[in-house]
């Protein structure tokens, strides 16, 4: 079990998580980029996003994407609120691999 938090901190975390869940569930996907963002929000895995999106693209006869495209898209300047959240979490998650050796 995680370390116990104060009630105020726990309530703040619950509110932040609920806001994130609502943002993702109500996110409209009108473009390929938006579909990628929503898929990444659900899976938090570049590989699973590529598999899911490519399966959809194969069905409609569109060119396939690769993992580098998804990475560049997530790391690009945020287009909306979900992209902003995903980008900050992705950069935090991959910080250790992006550090430059001295």
Question: Can you offer a commentary on this structure?
Answer:
With 102 residues, the protein is mainly α. It has a domain at 29-98. Helix content is 71%, strand content 0%. It contains six helices and no strands. It has helices at 7-25, 32-43, 46-60, 67-75, 81-93, 95-98. Helix 2 (32-43) packs across helix 3. The mean pLDDT is 92.
What is the structure about, briefly put?
By secondary structure, this protein is mainly α. The chain has helices at 7-25, 32-43, 46-60, 67-75, 81-93, 95-98. It is built from six helices and no strands.
Key words describing this protein structure:
102 residues, mainly alpha, 6 helices, globular
State the secondary-structure class: mainly alpha
Radius of gyration: 16 Å
Q: Summarize model confidence as the mean pLDDT.
A: 92
Bulk shape: globular
H/E element sequence = HHHHHH
* Proportion of strand residues: under 5%
- The rounded distance between the terminal residues' Cα atoms is 37 Å
Poorly predicted runs are none
Number of strands: 0
Sheet having the most strands:
none
Question: Count the helices. How many?
Answer: 6
Helix content: over 70%
What are the SSEs and their pairings?
Blueprint: H1 7-25, H2 32-43, H3 46-60, H4 67-75, H5 81-93, H6 95-98
């Amino acid at each position: 079990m995680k370390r116990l938090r104060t009630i105020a901190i726990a309530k703040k975390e619950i509110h932040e998580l609920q806001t994130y869940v609502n943002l993702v569930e109500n996110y409209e996907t009108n473009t390929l980029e938006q579909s990628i963002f929503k898929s990444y929000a659900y899976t938090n895995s570049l590989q699973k996003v590529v598999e899911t999106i490519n399966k959809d693209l194969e069905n409609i006869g569109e060119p396939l994407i690769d993992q580098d495209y998804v990475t560049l898209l997530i790391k690009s300047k945020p287009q909306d609120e979900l992209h902003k959240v995903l980008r900050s979490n992705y950069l935090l998650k991959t910080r250790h691999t992006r550090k430059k050796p001295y």
